[in-house]
Amino acid sequence: MKKQIAVLPGDGIGAEVAESAISVLKVVSEKFGHEFEFKKGLIGGCAIDEYGTPLPDETLTICRESDAILLGAVGGPKWDGNPSELRPEKGLLTLRKSLDLFANLRPVTVFESLAEASTLKFEVVNGVDLMIVRELTGGLYFGRPSERIGENKDAVVDTLHYTRKEIERIVQKGFELAQVRRKKLTSVDKANVLESSRMWREVVEEIAPKFPDVEYDHRLVDDAAMQLIRNPKQFDVIVTENLFGDILSDEASMMTGSLGMLPSASLSADGPGLYEPVHGSAPDIAGQGKANPLAMILSSAMMLKYSFNLSEEASAIESAVQNVLNEGYRTQDIADSHSPVISTTEMTEKVKAA
Ligand code: NAI
Ligand code: MG
Protein backbone atom coordinates (compact mmCIF):
# COMPACT_ATOMS: atom_id res chain seq x y z
CA MET A 1 0.00 0.00 0.00
CA LYS A 2 1.28 3.45 -0.95
CA LYS A 3 0.39 6.39 1.30
CA GLN A 4 1.45 9.97 1.85
CA ILE A 5 1.61 11.04 5.47
CA ALA A 6 1.83 14.69 6.51
CA VAL A 7 4.04 15.09 9.57
CA LEU A 8 3.67 18.28 11.62
CA PRO A 9 6.13 17.94 14.51
CA GLY A 10 5.32 21.33 16.04
CA ASP A 11 7.16 22.58 19.12
CA GLY A 12 8.97 21.26 22.18
CA ILE A 13 8.80 17.50 22.61
CA GLY A 14 6.43 17.39 19.62
CA ALA A 15 9.46 17.30 17.34
CA GLU A 16 11.16 14.59 19.40
CA VAL A 17 8.19 12.22 19.51
CA ALA A 18 7.29 12.81 15.84
CA GLU A 19 10.72 11.41 14.89
CA SER A 20 9.98 8.34 17.02
CA ALA A 21 6.70 7.69 15.22
CA ILE A 22 8.28 8.10 11.78
CA SER A 23 11.03 5.63 12.57
CA VAL A 24 8.56 3.06 13.93
CA LEU A 25 6.37 3.48 10.83
CA LYS A 26 9.43 2.90 8.64
CA VAL A 27 9.99 -0.45 10.35
CA VAL A 28 6.32 -1.33 9.82
CA SER A 29 6.40 -0.38 6.13
CA GLU A 30 9.51 -2.50 5.52
CA LYS A 31 8.14 -5.48 7.40
CA PHE A 32 4.71 -5.44 5.77
CA GLY A 33 5.79 -4.17 2.34
CA HIS A 34 4.14 -0.74 2.28
CA GLU A 35 5.39 2.55 0.93
CA PHE A 36 4.91 5.51 3.26
CA GLU A 37 6.05 8.92 2.08
CA PHE A 38 6.44 11.52 4.85
CA LYS A 39 5.92 15.21 4.06
CA LYS A 40 6.82 17.65 6.79
CA GLY A 41 5.09 20.93 7.55
CA LEU A 42 5.38 23.64 10.17
CA ILE A 43 2.64 24.36 12.70
CA GLY A 44 2.45 26.30 15.96
CA GLY A 45 5.26 28.37 17.42
CA CYS A 46 7.90 27.32 14.90
CA ALA A 47 5.55 28.36 12.07
CA ILE A 48 4.96 31.75 13.72
CA ASP A 49 8.72 32.28 13.89
CA GLU A 50 9.27 31.27 10.27
CA TYR A 51 6.12 32.54 8.48
CA GLY A 52 4.37 34.86 10.96
CA THR A 53 1.33 32.57 11.19
CA PRO A 54 0.65 29.41 13.24
CA LEU A 55 -0.79 27.57 10.22
CA PRO A 56 0.92 28.52 6.94
CA ASP A 57 -1.04 27.82 3.71
CA GLU A 58 1.75 25.52 2.64
CA THR A 59 1.16 23.31 5.68
CA LEU A 60 -2.59 23.19 5.10
CA THR A 61 -1.98 22.22 1.47
CA ILE A 62 0.36 19.38 2.48
CA CYS A 63 -2.32 18.14 4.90
CA ARG A 64 -5.11 18.29 2.31
CA GLU A 65 -3.00 16.39 -0.21
CA SER A 66 -2.01 13.67 2.27
CA ASP A 67 -3.81 10.47 3.26
CA ALA A 68 -3.37 11.17 6.98
CA ILE A 69 -1.69 13.63 9.32
CA LEU A 70 0.59 13.01 12.27
CA LEU A 71 0.99 15.92 14.66
CA GLY A 72 3.38 16.26 17.62
CA ALA A 73 2.32 19.17 19.82
CA VAL A 74 2.34 22.95 19.71
CA GLY A 75 3.08 25.77 22.11
CA GLY A 76 5.62 26.98 24.61
CA PRO A 77 6.48 29.91 26.90
CA LYS A 78 8.12 31.82 24.04
CA TRP A 79 4.70 32.52 22.47
CA ASP A 80 2.56 32.71 25.63
CA GLY A 81 2.26 36.50 25.50
CA ASN A 82 1.18 36.58 21.83
CA PRO A 83 -2.24 37.93 20.79
CA SER A 84 -4.80 35.18 20.12
CA GLU A 85 -4.35 35.12 16.31
CA LEU A 86 -0.63 34.57 16.81
CA ARG A 87 -0.82 31.80 19.37
CA PRO A 88 0.44 28.32 18.51
CA GLU A 89 -2.88 26.68 19.60
CA LYS A 90 -4.68 28.78 16.99
CA GLY A 91 -2.84 26.75 14.33
CA LEU A 92 -4.30 23.53 15.68
CA LEU A 93 -7.83 24.93 16.03
CA THR A 94 -7.73 26.28 12.47
CA LEU A 95 -6.46 22.96 11.15
CA ARG A 96 -9.27 21.02 12.89
CA LYS A 97 -11.87 23.46 11.60
CA SER A 98 -10.46 23.59 8.03
CA LEU A 99 -10.51 19.81 7.73
CA ASP A 100 -13.89 19.45 9.48
CA LEU A 101 -12.50 16.98 12.00
CA PHE A 102 -15.73 16.45 13.92
CA ALA A 103 -14.99 13.12 15.61
CA ASN A 104 -12.37 12.99 18.33
CA LEU A 105 -11.40 9.47 19.39
CA ARG A 106 -9.58 8.98 22.65
CA PRO A 107 -8.88 5.38 23.58
CA VAL A 108 -7.93 4.66 27.17
CA THR A 109 -6.03 1.40 27.48
CA VAL A 110 -4.50 0.44 30.78
CA PHE A 111 -1.53 -1.81 30.15
CA GLU A 112 -1.26 -4.37 32.94
CA SER A 113 2.34 -3.54 33.71
CA LEU A 114 1.38 0.11 34.20
CA ALA A 115 -1.84 -0.37 36.16
CA GLU A 116 0.09 0.19 39.40
CA ALA A 117 0.93 3.71 38.19
CA SER A 118 -2.73 4.67 37.89
CA THR A 119 -4.38 7.08 40.27
CA LEU A 120 -7.10 4.45 40.81
CA LYS A 121 -6.93 1.02 42.42
CA PHE A 122 -5.18 -1.74 40.47
CA GLU A 123 -8.27 -4.02 40.42
CA VAL A 124 -10.43 -1.19 39.12
CA VAL A 125 -8.24 -0.15 36.19
CA ASN A 126 -6.31 -3.26 35.24
CA GLY A 127 -7.62 -4.31 31.82
CA VAL A 128 -9.55 -1.13 31.08
CA ASP A 129 -9.95 -0.73 27.32
CA LEU A 130 -12.45 1.95 26.39
CA MET A 131 -12.81 4.67 23.82
CA ILE A 132 -14.38 8.08 24.20
CA VAL A 133 -15.81 9.52 20.99
CA ARG A 134 -16.29 13.24 21.41
CA GLU A 135 -18.06 15.61 19.02
CA LEU A 136 -15.41 18.22 18.30
CA THR A 137 -16.77 20.98 16.11
CA GLY A 138 -20.16 21.94 17.57
CA GLY A 139 -21.98 22.51 20.84
CA LEU A 140 -21.32 24.99 23.60
CA TYR A 141 -17.73 25.79 22.56
CA PHE A 142 -18.83 27.17 19.20
CA GLY A 143 -22.31 28.57 19.99
CA ARG A 144 -23.14 32.19 19.25
CA PRO A 145 -23.97 34.37 21.09
CA SER A 146 -21.32 33.84 23.71
CA GLU A 147 -21.04 37.15 25.52
CA ARG A 148 -21.77 39.45 28.44
CA ILE A 149 -25.23 40.96 28.13
CA GLY A 150 -27.58 43.41 29.82
CA GLU A 151 -27.30 47.11 30.49
CA ASN A 152 -24.54 46.64 33.02
CA LYS A 153 -23.05 43.61 31.31
CA ASP A 154 -23.60 41.69 34.50
CA ALA A 155 -25.29 38.73 32.86
CA VAL A 156 -23.82 36.17 30.46
CA VAL A 157 -25.04 33.96 27.68
CA ASP A 158 -23.43 30.92 26.08
CA THR A 159 -25.23 29.01 23.39
CA LEU A 160 -25.41 25.26 22.92
CA HIS A 161 -26.22 24.69 19.27
CA TYR A 162 -26.41 21.40 17.35
CA THR A 163 -28.06 20.43 14.09
CA ARG A 164 -29.56 16.97 13.63
CA LYS A 165 -26.94 16.30 10.93
CA GLU A 166 -24.08 17.09 13.32
CA ILE A 167 -25.49 14.69 15.89
CA GLU A 168 -26.19 11.99 13.31
CA ARG A 169 -22.65 11.86 11.98
CA ILE A 170 -21.02 11.53 15.40
CA VAL A 171 -23.53 8.97 16.66
CA GLN A 172 -23.04 6.98 13.46
CA LYS A 173 -19.28 7.06 14.06
CA GLY A 174 -19.83 5.84 17.63
CA PHE A 175 -21.85 2.86 16.43
CA GLU A 176 -19.32 2.03 13.70
CA LEU A 177 -16.47 2.02 16.21
CA ALA A 178 -18.42 -0.09 18.70
CA GLN A 179 -19.13 -2.59 15.95
CA VAL A 180 -15.43 -3.24 15.33
CA ARG A 181 -14.63 -3.34 19.05
CA ARG A 182 -16.67 -5.14 21.76
CA LYS A 183 -20.03 -4.06 20.29
CA LYS A 184 -21.15 -1.96 23.21
CA LEU A 185 -22.06 1.72 22.93
CA THR A 186 -22.90 4.10 25.76
CA SER A 187 -24.42 7.40 24.68
CA VAL A 188 -23.91 10.12 27.27
CA ASP A 189 -26.20 13.14 27.58
CA LYS A 190 -28.19 15.22 30.04
CA ALA A 191 -31.62 14.52 28.61
CA ASN A 192 -33.39 15.26 31.89
CA VAL A 193 -32.60 18.96 31.49
CA LEU A 194 -31.25 19.79 28.02
CA GLU A 195 -33.26 19.94 24.81
CA SER A 196 -30.08 19.27 22.81
CA SER A 197 -29.68 16.04 24.76
CA ARG A 198 -33.25 15.02 24.02
CA MET A 199 -32.59 15.38 20.31
CA TRP A 200 -29.32 13.48 20.83
CA ARG A 201 -31.30 10.57 22.34
CA GLU A 202 -33.80 10.58 19.47
CA VAL A 203 -30.96 10.35 16.96
CA VAL A 204 -29.34 7.45 18.83
CA GLU A 205 -32.68 5.62 18.77
CA GLU A 206 -33.03 6.27 15.02
CA ILE A 207 -29.55 5.04 14.15
CA ALA A 208 -29.45 2.03 16.49
CA PRO A 209 -31.54 -0.31 14.26
CA LYS A 210 -28.81 -0.04 11.59
CA PHE A 211 -26.48 -1.78 14.06
CA PRO A 212 -28.51 -4.71 15.43
CA ASP A 213 -25.38 -6.43 16.76
CA VAL A 214 -24.36 -3.43 18.89
CA GLU A 215 -25.77 -3.27 22.40
CA TYR A 216 -26.36 0.33 23.46
CA ASP A 217 -27.64 2.37 26.37
CA HIS A 218 -28.13 5.99 27.44
CA ARG A 219 -26.43 7.46 30.50
CA LEU A 220 -26.72 10.85 32.09
CA VAL A 221 -23.36 12.58 32.17
CA ASP A 222 -23.17 12.85 35.97
CA ASP A 223 -23.81 9.13 36.29
CA ALA A 224 -21.26 8.38 33.56
CA ALA A 225 -18.62 10.47 35.37
CA MET A 226 -19.22 8.48 38.54
CA GLN A 227 -19.25 5.09 36.79
CA LEU A 228 -15.94 5.86 35.05
CA ILE A 229 -14.27 5.97 38.45
CA ARG A 230 -16.31 3.23 40.09
CA ASN A 231 -16.21 0.58 37.38
CA PRO A 232 -14.53 1.69 34.13
CA LYS A 233 -14.36 -1.84 32.73
CA GLN A 234 -18.11 -1.77 31.99
CA PHE A 235 -17.47 0.64 29.07
CA ASP A 236 -16.47 -0.09 25.49
CA VAL A 237 -17.31 2.98 23.37
CA ILE A 238 -18.74 6.17 24.87
CA VAL A 239 -20.18 8.71 22.43
CA THR A 240 -20.99 12.22 23.59
CA GLU A 241 -21.14 15.90 22.72
CA ASN A 242 -18.26 18.35 22.87
CA LEU A 243 -18.33 19.64 26.46
CA PHE A 244 -19.18 16.32 28.13
CA GLY A 245 -16.54 14.58 26.01
CA ASP A 246 -13.88 17.11 26.96
CA ILE A 247 -14.44 16.51 30.65
CA LEU A 248 -14.97 12.74 30.57
CA SER A 249 -11.92 12.12 28.39
CA ASP A 250 -9.63 14.03 30.76
CA GLU A 251 -11.15 12.15 33.68
CA ALA A 252 -10.64 8.79 31.96
CA SER A 253 -7.08 9.66 30.94
CA MET A 254 -5.91 9.58 34.54
CA MET A 255 -6.41 5.83 34.61
CA THR A 256 -3.32 5.24 32.49
CA GLY A 257 -0.94 6.97 34.88
CA SER A 258 0.66 9.36 32.39
CA LEU A 259 -0.23 11.80 29.66
CA GLY A 260 2.69 10.25 27.80
CA MET A 261 0.62 7.11 27.13
CA LEU A 262 -2.47 8.62 25.49
CA PRO A 263 -3.02 8.70 21.72
CA SER A 264 -5.89 10.35 19.87
CA ALA A 265 -7.47 10.62 16.45
CA SER A 266 -9.66 13.29 14.92
CA LEU A 267 -11.66 12.22 11.90
CA SER A 268 -13.77 13.91 9.24
CA ALA A 269 -16.37 12.44 6.89
CA ASP A 270 -13.96 11.73 4.04
CA GLY A 271 -10.77 13.83 4.26
CA PRO A 272 -7.50 12.93 5.99
CA GLY A 273 -7.60 12.07 9.70
CA LEU A 274 -5.37 13.81 12.25
CA TYR A 275 -3.46 11.69 14.75
CA GLU A 276 -1.76 13.23 17.76
CA PRO A 277 -0.81 12.48 21.34
CA VAL A 278 -3.12 14.00 23.97
CA HIS A 279 -0.19 15.71 25.71
CA GLY A 280 1.25 19.13 24.90
CA SER A 281 4.76 20.29 24.03
CA ALA A 282 6.07 19.79 27.61
CA PRO A 283 8.53 22.71 27.66
CA ASP A 284 9.78 21.56 31.07
CA ILE A 285 11.44 18.47 29.55
CA ALA A 286 11.87 19.53 25.90
CA GLY A 287 15.27 18.89 24.34
CA GLN A 288 16.39 16.60 27.16
CA GLY A 289 15.52 13.25 25.62
CA LYS A 290 13.10 12.52 28.45
CA ALA A 291 9.80 12.55 26.56
CA ASN A 292 7.75 9.38 26.47
CA PRO A 293 7.22 8.65 22.75
CA LEU A 294 4.54 5.98 23.31
CA ALA A 295 1.51 8.31 23.02
CA MET A 296 2.79 9.44 19.61
CA ILE A 297 3.72 5.92 18.54
CA LEU A 298 0.27 4.65 19.57
CA SER A 299 -1.28 7.55 17.63
CA SER A 300 0.51 6.31 14.52
CA ALA A 301 -0.99 2.84 15.17
CA MET A 302 -4.43 4.48 15.24
CA MET A 303 -3.62 6.09 11.90
CA LEU A 304 -2.81 2.71 10.36
CA LYS A 305 -6.06 1.30 11.69
CA TYR A 306 -8.55 4.10 11.09
CA SER A 307 -7.18 5.86 8.01
CA PHE A 308 -5.50 3.00 6.16
CA ASN A 309 -7.49 0.02 7.42
CA LEU A 310 -4.23 -1.75 8.31
CA SER A 311 -5.36 -3.51 11.49
CA GLU A 312 -2.65 -6.12 11.57
CA GLU A 313 0.06 -3.49 11.25
CA ALA A 314 -1.60 -1.39 13.98
CA SER A 315 -1.76 -4.41 16.29
CA ALA A 316 1.92 -5.09 15.62
CA ILE A 317 2.78 -1.65 17.02
CA GLU A 318 0.42 -2.04 19.98
CA SER A 319 1.82 -5.43 20.95
CA ALA A 320 5.37 -4.14 20.56
CA VAL A 321 4.55 -1.35 23.04
CA GLN A 322 2.96 -3.82 25.41
CA ASN A 323 5.97 -6.16 25.22
CA VAL A 324 8.45 -3.39 25.88
CA LEU A 325 6.46 -2.30 28.93
CA ASN A 326 6.18 -5.90 30.13
CA GLU A 327 9.95 -6.17 29.91
CA GLY A 328 10.12 -3.27 32.37
CA TYR A 329 11.44 -0.47 30.18
CA ARG A 330 10.23 2.94 31.34
CA THR A 331 10.66 6.58 30.44
CA GLN A 332 10.81 8.86 33.48
CA ASP A 333 7.11 9.78 33.49
CA ILE A 334 6.05 6.14 34.00
CA ALA A 335 9.06 4.97 35.99
CA ASP A 336 8.68 3.10 39.26
CA SER A 337 11.33 2.25 41.84
CA HIS A 338 12.36 -1.03 40.22
CA SER A 339 12.77 -0.10 36.56
CA PRO A 340 15.70 1.59 34.84
CA VAL A 341 14.74 4.89 33.18
CA ILE A 342 15.50 5.08 29.48
CA SER A 343 15.45 7.99 27.02
CA THR A 344 13.07 8.86 24.17
CA THR A 345 15.36 7.33 21.57
CA GLU A 346 16.10 4.23 23.64
CA MET A 347 12.36 3.62 24.10
CA THR A 348 11.83 4.11 20.36
CA GLU A 349 14.58 1.61 19.56
CA LYS A 350 13.03 -0.95 21.96
CA VAL A 351 9.65 -0.61 20.24
CA LYS A 352 11.24 -0.93 16.79
CA ALA A 353 13.10 -4.05 17.85
CA ALA A 354 9.96 -5.56 19.40
P1 NAI B 1 1.87 19.24 28.67
O1 NAI B 1 1.04 18.08 28.26
O2 NAI B 1 2.81 19.77 27.68
O3 NAI B 1 2.69 18.83 30.00
C1 NAI B 1 2.07 18.52 31.24
C2 NAI B 1 3.06 17.71 32.10
O4 NAI B 1 3.15 16.38 31.59
C3 NAI B 1 4.49 18.26 32.08
O5 NAI B 1 5.08 18.09 33.34
C4 NAI B 1 5.18 17.41 31.04
O6 NAI B 1 6.57 17.27 31.28
C5 NAI B 1 4.47 16.06 31.20
N1 NAI B 1 4.41 15.36 29.90
C6 NAI B 1 3.58 15.65 28.87
N2 NAI B 1 3.81 14.82 27.83
C7 NAI B 1 4.80 13.99 28.22
C8 NAI B 1 5.51 12.93 27.59
N3 NAI B 1 5.22 12.54 26.33
N4 NAI B 1 6.48 12.31 28.29
C9 NAI B 1 6.78 12.68 29.53
N5 NAI B 1 6.16 13.67 30.20
C10 NAI B 1 5.19 14.33 29.54
O7 NAI B 1 0.85 20.38 29.14
P2 NAI B 1 1.17 21.87 29.65
O8 NAI B 1 2.42 21.88 30.44
O9 NAI B 1 -0.07 22.34 30.24
O10 NAI B 1 1.39 22.72 28.32
C11 NAI B 1 2.66 22.98 27.74
C12 NAI B 1 2.46 23.62 26.38
O11 NAI B 1 1.82 22.69 25.49
C13 NAI B 1 1.58 24.86 26.41
O12 NAI B 1 2.10 25.79 25.51
C14 NAI B 1 0.23 24.35 25.94
O13 NAI B 1 -0.54 25.35 25.34
C15 NAI B 1 0.64 23.29 24.95
N6 NAI B 1 -0.36 22.23 24.74
C16 NAI B 1 -0.50 21.78 23.46
C17 NAI B 1 -1.35 20.75 23.17
C18 NAI B 1 -1.39 20.26 21.78
O14 NAI B 1 -0.54 20.59 20.98
N7 NAI B 1 -2.34 19.42 21.43
C19 NAI B 1 -2.17 20.12 24.20
C20 NAI B 1 -1.91 20.62 25.54
C21 NAI B 1 -1.04 21.65 25.78
MG1 MG C 1 -9.53 19.10 27.79
Task: List the keywords.
binds 1,4-dihydronicotinamide adenine dinucleotide; Isopropylmalate Dehydrogenase; alpha/beta; ten-stranded mixed β-sheet; metal-binding; 40% helix; single chain
Structure, described:
There is one protein chain. The chain is 40% helix and 19% strand. It has helices at residues 13-32, 45-51, 57-65, 88-98, 122-125, 164-179, 195-207, 221-230, 242-253, 294-306, 311-326, 344-353; strands spanning 2-10, 35-40, 68-73, 103-109, 129-135, 147-149, 155-157, 184-189, 215-220, 237-240, 263-267, 273-277. β1 (2-10), α1 and β2 form a beta-alpha-beta unit. A ten-stranded mixed β-sheet has the order 2-1-3-12-11-4-5-10-8-9, sandwiched between helices. The protein has a two-stranded antiparallel sheet with strand order 6-7. 46% of the residues are buried. It has two domains: 1-105 and 262-354, Isopropylmalate Dehydrogenase; 119-256, Isopropylmalate Dehydrogenase. The longest helix is centred in the first third of the chain and has 20 residues, at 13-32. With 354 residues, it is α/β, with parallel strands linked by helices. It has twelve helices and twelve strands. Bound molecules: 1,4-dihydronicotinamide adenine dinucleotide and magnesium ion. Magnesium ion (MG) is lined by residues 246, 250. Magnesium ion is lined by residues 246, 250.
Bound molecules: 1,4-dihydronicotinamide adenine dinucleotide, magnesium ion
The H-and-E topology, N to C, reads as: EHEHHEHEHEEEHEHEHEHEEHHH
The class by helix and strand makeup works out as alpha/beta
Low-confidence residue ranges: none
Shape: globular
CATH top level class name of the largest domain:
Alpha Beta
CATH architecture of the largest domain: 3-Layer(aba) Sandwich
Q: Into which percent range does the helicity of residues fall?
A: 25-40%
Tell me the radius of gyration. Answer: 20 Å
CATH superfamily of the largest domain: Isopropylmalate Dehydrogenase
Give the total of beta strands.
12
CATH T-level fold name of the largest domain:
Isopropylmalate Dehydrogenase
Number of helices: 12
Terminal CA distance: 23 Å
Main sheet attributes: strand count, strand direction, barrel closure: 10 strands, mixed
Enzyme class: oxidoreductase
Domain Isopropylmalate dehydrogenase-like: 4-351
GO molecular function: 3-isopropylmalate dehydrogenase activity; magnesium ion binding; NAD binding
Organism: Pueribacillus theae
